[in-house]
Amino acid sequence: MAKPGRGQNAMDYIAENKAFYDQFYESINPKQIAEKVRHRDAFLSGAMSPSWEGLYWGGFRRYLKGAIVLEIGAGNGLNSLIMAALGAEFVVAVDITDHTKRIVTQAAKRLMLSKKLAVWIGDFAEMNIEPASFDFVVGKSILRHLPSKVEEDYLYKAGVLLKPTGEMRFSEPTPAKLVSEIDNLYPPRDASPAHYRVLCSHYFEQVQLIPIRRMQQIKAQVIIARDSLVTPGIF
After folding, report:
1. pLDDT by residue (tens digit) across 21-64?
2. Would you say 229 and 205 are in contact if contact means Cβ atoms under 8 Å apart?
3. What does the alpha-carbon distance between residue 230 and residue 234 come to, in Å, rounded to a whole number?
4. Domain map of the chain by residue range?
5. What rounded mean pLDDT belongs to the chain?
6. Beta strands of 96-133 (E only): which ranges?
7. How far apart are CA 21 and CA 48, in angstroms?
8. pTM of the model
9. What CATH number should be reported for the domain whose range is 10-228?
10. Which of 66, 95, 170, 210 meets the CB 3.0–4.6 Å disulfide criterion with 222?
């Protein structure tokens, strides 16, 4: 499977999203994030948003034991920190804002998890990462931010990075029309189950979509893909 071509708007997308999240996460206190991680069991069993519920659907937390995980769009780092605390061997948190590194680094130090986490800042598709080195590549409400060509780049890269037995797992809101739309943050795109099934099938042999419903009109879909069709070493 050949690497897809990147669209002309990719750099504009990265710049606009980085500017937004540089401001959005500036005020996040790592101490508060660390406290949420300490109370992770209550958080994960409580009234989570559909995207959180979706990511942990099917007993995902059990599969984290001893796993090497990469999270795309780690944001405030809460999920990456929780995965490390749940027993992942190592977690790489990827985002475009430097605040992710600040928050995760300081919170991990408080939680004594520093040796289990790394933070990489930049455009995921352009990162130089060892192929076939992760058990899971995950994301929570990240694909909805991506223009179609950037999305293809990210899914292709996920296929490159997964071990032969690895799994890609994304939890995304549905339907396609978002309740809160911000100019240049959520590009016009198809976020339907059919779209994800067709697109993911270009890069993975097995593709599964699971609808998650918490209450009326608040939904998420879990995209699980296995058996990468991408040849390791191309990227």
Report:
1. 999 999 999 999 999 999 999 999 877 788 899 999 999 999 99
2. yes
3. 8
4. 10-228
5. 88
6. 117-121
7. 22
8. 0.90
9. 3.40.50.150
10. 210
> Cα–Cα distance between 96 and 228 in angstroms, integer?
25
Which residues, other chains included, contact 166 with Cβ-Cβ below 8 Å and sequence gap of 6+? 132, 134, 135, 136, 137, 226, 228
The answer to whether 229 and 158 have CB atoms below 8 angstroms apart is no
pLDDT for position 216: 55
Alpha-carbon 21 to chain mean position: 15
Question: Cis link prior to 175 (omega < 30° from 0)?
Answer: yes
Whole-angstrom distance, CA of residue 203 vs CA of residue 150: 14
Residues 6+ apart with CB under 8 A from 152: 4, 199, 202
DSSP string, 150-189: HHHHHHHHHHHHEEEEEEEEEEEEESSS-SS--TTTS-S-
> Of 124, 128, 127, nearest to 138 (Cα)?
124
Name residue 56's amino acid: Y
Report pLDDT digits (tens) over 82-101: 999 999 999 999 999 999 99
Can you point out the beta strands (E) in the chain? 68-72, 90-95, 117-121, 134-140, 162-174, 204-215, 218-228
pLDDT for 153-209, tens place per residue? Answer: 999 999 999 999 999 999 998 754 444 445 556 777 788 889 999 999 999 999 999
CA atoms 11, 162, 62, 223: torsion sign: positive
